């Protein structure tokens, strides 16, 4: 079966959504294929007794545990960090905590400034107007004037209130003389378009029953799929097809019943995240791969090592309440200082500690045993009386950290993937140093007990780097506008193209860069070499 369109997008996450909207506004015929399905918000049960049990089933971050219709196997036995993602309409924004952070100017110049990684072929100011636009699209709440950032246009909504815990964290940082600012979050603090005001249920990653979190299914796809874009769900793309001149002619995909389809398109845009996009590129040309003359497809995987510092307090700080976006962030020690024993830096964010069962699950709280005699004591000690500081460390690109096809895990002839990833010595030194500083913050907050968890395993939310952008075809996969050097009408718009990872959450930059690349493609579409 065949179908035709001007542009075919693979992946309905934030980059696919932003690009589809831009193409549709330009009058292009757009089709999007999404491997998963629409989120079922009837299974978002915050406020019900079964909330925390069902959330770990339906909204699990790990596709190997979730095993939903759009998931495929990921072998992470050779990785320090578990890769996390959501295959479905909205992509990773369905499960993200909605921290909305712009990269800093130094993030685009790590080679020049610190002699590590690579400089981006674009800079902060190239993305600045696109940051402004996507912040309006994703209902960002925050406060202008953060002294750690360049001057910005005010976000469309005011920040989420700090509440007791947020104020305690802010007072401690003031006491130490260290930077903090109300967190920027893609969370509506007032009714905004299709979104409703946040009810602060700490359920952001688990379906957001209020409809306040700006996931791309709500902000973009519900409107786009009505009459502007043809969105096909449960469509597993097998490979990109090429003609005898090396142009992309479209893709083949399997529908929910296993029936193979072919879609022909003038332009193909991959927006399937740094693992999914790699999987398609490597599986194309009947498994020989496409767009890989540089040998870099799948290499330089970055996932942001993550750790936390937890404080336990005598007072009830209402830490069950708020957004699992952030109350506040700190960039006090973000910029490089080699005297610390490492380069680059990390972001801190103060989080609520959530509902009762959250305290009893492995992961966030480390390895301390909780079941048995300790259960009720720890529950009383922690519920409402705890604070979590998260630490996101910049992850430098390493060609040995990579995504590979896993033919042994093939389902219906479509392979799974395996990842090879080791946390660098630089990241480990960075994490240890930042946790020492957060120990000082917890002391200033008045914590009676402190728990530190460096390099937590199940935290690979931020997938970047496996189809790197650059000017040199021998040292990159795509050009600065996302076009594959080897295939002139095949593009990549997701986080795969990032040369470096920064030390902050990437979704704002993924969306801004996708808008920049989509607008460039629209402006130059008459120059694109399309199949006959």
Automatic annotation (TrEMBL):
Matches recorded under InterPro entries: FAD/NAD-bd_sf, GMC_OxRdtase_N, GMC_OxRtase_C
Q: Does the keyword Oxidoreductase apply?
A: yes
- Source domain of life is Bacteria
Q: Which Gene3D superfamilies match?
A: FAD/NAD(P)-binding domain
| Molecular function terms from GO | flavin adenine dinucleotide binding; oxidoreductase activity, acting on CH-OH group of donors
Q: Which UniProt keywords apply?
A: FAD, Flavoprotein, Oxidoreductase
Which ranges carry the Glucose-methanol-choline oxidoreductase N-terminal domain? 8-305
Spans through the membrane? none
What sequence ranges are listed for the domain Glucose-methanol-choline oxidoreductase C-terminal?
397-514
Family the entry assigns: Belongs to the GMC oxidoreductase family.
PANTHER family linked: LONG-CHAIN-ALCOHOL OXIDASE
Protein name as it appears in the record: Choline dehydrogenase-like flavoprotein
């Amino acid at each position: 079966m065949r179908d035709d369109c001007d542009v075919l997008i693979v992946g309905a996450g934030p980059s696919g959504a932003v690009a589809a909207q831009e193409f549709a506004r330009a009058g292009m015929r757009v089709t999007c294929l999404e491997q998963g399905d629409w989120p079922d918000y009837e299974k978002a049960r915050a406020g019900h007794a079964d909330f925390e049990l069902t959330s770990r089933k339906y909204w699990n971050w790990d596709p190997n545990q979730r095993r939903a219709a759009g998931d495929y196997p990921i072998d992470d036995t050779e990785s320090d960090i578990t890769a996390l993602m959501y295959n479905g309409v909205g992509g990773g924004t369905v499960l993200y905590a909605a921290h909305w952070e712009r990269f800093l100017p130094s993030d685009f110049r790590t080679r020049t400034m610190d002699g590590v990684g690579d400089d981006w072929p674009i800079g902060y100011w190239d993305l600045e107007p696109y940051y402004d636009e996507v912040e309006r699209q994703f209902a960002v709440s925050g406060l202008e004037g953060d002294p750690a950032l360049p001057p910005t246009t005010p976000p469309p909504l005011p920040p989420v209130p700090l509440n007791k815990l947020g104020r305690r964290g802010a007072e401690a940082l003031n006491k130490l003389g260290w930077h903090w600012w109300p967190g920027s979050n893609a969370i509506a603090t007032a009714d905004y378009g299709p979104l409703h005001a946040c009810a602060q249920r700490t359920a952001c990653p688990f379906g957001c029953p209020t409809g306040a979190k700006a996931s791309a299914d709500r902000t973009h796809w519900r409107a786009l799929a009505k009459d502007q874009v043809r969105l096909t769900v449960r469509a597993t793309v097998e490979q990109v097809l090429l003609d005898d001149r090396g142009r992309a002619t479209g893709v083949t995909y399997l529908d929910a019943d296993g029936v193979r389809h072919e879609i022909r398109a003038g332009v193909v845009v991959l927006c399937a995240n740094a693992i999914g996009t790699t999987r398609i590129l490597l599986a194309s040309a009947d498994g020989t791969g496409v767009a890989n003359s540089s040998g870099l497809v799948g290499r330089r995987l970055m996932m942001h090592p993550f750790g936390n510092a937890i404080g336990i307090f005598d007072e009830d700080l209402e830490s069950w309440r708020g957004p699992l976006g952030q109350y506040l962030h700190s960039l006090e020690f973000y910029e490089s200082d080699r005297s610390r024993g490492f380069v680059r830096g990390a972001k801190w964010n103060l989080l609520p500690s959530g509902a009762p069962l959250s305290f009893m699950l492995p992961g966030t709280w480390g390895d301390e045993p909780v079941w048995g005699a300790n259960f009720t004591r720890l529950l009383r000690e922690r519920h409402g009386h705890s604070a979590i500081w998260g630490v996101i460390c910049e992850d430098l690109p390493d060609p040995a950290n990579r995504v590979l096809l896993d033919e042994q895990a093939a389902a219906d002839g479509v392979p799974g993937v395996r990842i090879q990833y080791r946390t660098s010595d630089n990241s480990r030194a960075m994490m240890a140093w930042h946790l020492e500083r957060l120990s000082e913050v917890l002391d200033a907050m008045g914590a009676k007990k402190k728990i530190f968890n460096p390099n937590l395993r199940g935290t690979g939310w931020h997938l970047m780097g496996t189809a790197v952008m650059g000017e040199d075809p021998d040292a990159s996969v795509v050009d600065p506008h996302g076009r594959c050097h080897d295939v002139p009408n095949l593009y990549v718009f997701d986080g795969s193209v990032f040369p470096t990872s920064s030390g902050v959450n990437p979704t704002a930059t993924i969306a801004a860069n996708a808008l920049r690349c989509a607008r460039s493609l629209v402006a130059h579409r008459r120059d694109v070499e399309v199949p006959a």
